[in-house]
From TrEMBL:
Family, as annotated: Belongs to the GroES chaperonin family.
Protein name: 20 kDa chaperonin, chloroplastic
Keyword annotations from UniProtKB, A to Z: Chaperone
Gene3D superfamilies the record matches: GroES chaperonin (2.30.33.40)
InterPro entries assigned to the protein according to its UniProt record, in alphabetical order: Chaperonin_GroES, Chaperonin_GroES_sf, Chaprnonin_Cpn10_CS, Cpn20, GroES-like_sf
Domain of life of the native organism: Eukaryota
GO molecular function: ATP binding; protein folding chaperone; transition metal ion binding
Pfam (any one): Cpn10
Chaperone keyword on record: yes
Gene source species: Citrus sinensis
Amino acid sequence: MATAQLTASSIKVPARSLTSFDGLRPSSVKFASVGGAPSQRSFRRLVVKAAAVVAPKYTSIKPLGDRVLVKIKTVEEKTDGGIFLPSAAQTKPQAGEVVAVGEGKTVGKAKLDISVKPGTQVIYSKYAGTELEFNGANHLILREDDVVGILETDEIKDLKPLNDRVFIKVAEAEETTAGGLLLTEASKEKPSIGMVIAVGPGPLDEEGNRKPLSIAPGNTVMYSKYAGNDFKGSDGTNYIALRASEVMAVLS
C-alpha cells in the first residue's frame, strides 16, 4: 500500500472536491499545513490498494509455467497478550497455503514438475510475487524459486528449505564489548554467524539434475550481513533463510 505526505504549500484541495473520489476508503494520504502546524481543516483519508482485484466473474486461477498461487496467511492484528496492533506494526505475512501450481518448467531436455503441491504450507520471500485479491481473500502469485521452504508444523524451526536455500539458527548478539562494557539493545551489532539447521536439495544444473550443497546441517557459518529472510521462533530464537551463495565461509 503506497502512502504520500503532501503539504499545503504544494497542493490545495477544496473540501467539496473530495466527494468526487467515489469508492475510495479511508487511507494514509495526509494533508498538513506548512511548518508542521496542525491543519485548520481535516480531510478524509484516501486509500489506493496495491493488490490487483480479480472480478467475481472469474472463478479460478491457473498459474502458468513455474508459477505458484498461494493464499496468504492472515496478518496478526493483536499480540499474544491481546493488544491490538496498528497497521504499521503488523508483521507482513510470509506464509500461506499453495492453492494452485503451474505445469512446471523445462531445464535442458528435462521437464520438471513444481516441487510444491496444492495444500502445502509454505514460507516465501518477503518481497516476491504479485499480490491479488481473489474470492475475498489475499493471494500471491510467484515463481517456485521464490518459495523459501515448506512448513509442516506451526514452528518456524521445522522449516524444510527448498532448492539452494540454507536455514540457519542465528548466533546471539554479543552482550558486552571486549573491554567489558554492557551493550544496549540498539548498539548490539547484528550477528552474521549461525549454525545450519537444514539445507535444500541443491540447485539445478544445465541438465536438470540437482547439485548437492557443500554446506551441511551442524556447520557454523558466516553469511552476508543483509542477506536472506529473517524469522523469529515462538521461543524468541532468531533464524534466517538464505541462498547458499550468500554463505561466505564455514567456521571451525
